[in-house]
Prior knowledge:
It is built from 14 helices and no strands. It has one domain (4-271). It has helices at residues 4-8, 13-37, 41-65, 69-74, 77-98, 100-106, 110-121, 132-143, 147-155, 157-182, 188-196, 199-211, 218-226, 231-265. The radius of gyration is 21 Å and the shape is globular. It is mainly alpha-helical. The two termini are 19 Å apart.
Amino acid sequence: MTLLHLTGTGGGLGPTLAIAGVLVVLGCWYAVGLWEVLDHPQGRRQQRTRAPAVIAGVVLLVAVSVPPLGDTLENRLSTHMAQHLVILVVVAPLLAVGSPGQVLLAGLAPGVRRPLVATARRVPGRTLATPLGWLLSVAGLWVWHLPAAYDAAVRSPGVHVLEHATFLLTGWLFWARLVHLVRTPGRGIAAAAYVAAAVPPGAALGAVLTFADHPLYPLQAAHARATGVDPLLDQRIAGIVMWVPLDLVYLAVAIALFARWLSELQGGDGEVDVGSTLPSDARPAHLEVR
C-alpha cells in the first residue's frame, strides 16, 4: 500500500509498477461498479457521500505513501507515527464510510456476482456482530510497534508494505464494524462503547513511547543521530503524536455517538441509511457487503 520504501531503498521499479497496476485495476473496477450503481435512484442517493469518501481515502493514502510527502514523513519516528495515524483514523474510516465493497461487487459480471451474493446470504447475521475488527486493529497497532517488527519494516521494503497494508486492513475492519453499528437502528450506545474501548490501548502505546528512558528502535535511532536529531526526543514526540490525536479522535467519535443516542431516546428521528445500492440480482437479504 505504500510505494515509499520500494522507491527509496533499492526495492526496484518492478514492485512499484506492480502496485501501481493493482491500483489502476481496482480503480477501473470501482468505476464500472459505480456506473452500475448510479443507474438506481437509491444508489445515486447513497453514493453522493460514499463515492467521495472512497476517492478521498484513496487519494490521501497515496499522498502520504509516495514521494515527496511520503519521503518526508519517513525521515523521523515522530512523522512516521503521524503517517500511521493518518492511515488508521482518516483513510480507514473514509473507506469504511464509503463501503466500496458494494460498488466493487456491482462491478462484477452477473455470473460471478450471483454466487458471491448467494454465499453472503448464508452468512449468519451475528457474524457481523463480532468485535473482530476491534481486536485486529489493537493487535496490529501493538505488534507493528514492537521494536523487532518496526525495525524489520524499516529494513525491508516488503515488510514495510505489509505493515501499512495491515494498518489499512485492520483499521478498515475497525471502522466498518462501527459504521455497521451506526447504520443499525437501536445500536447507538453499542457504537459509542465500541469506539471508546479503543482509547486505552492507544493511550498505553503512546505512554510507552513517551516515557521510555532509552530509544526503542535501533535503526530509527541510528538514522536520527546521523541527521543530527536526538532519537529519544524524537521518540517522545512520536509517543505524544500516537497518544493524544488518536485518543482525541476516538473520544470525539464516542461522545458524538453517545449524544446521538441520547437524542434518539428523547424523540429524535434516528433515521439510518441501511439500504443497498446493488442491482436487484446482487442485493443481499441481510448483509451489507463492504
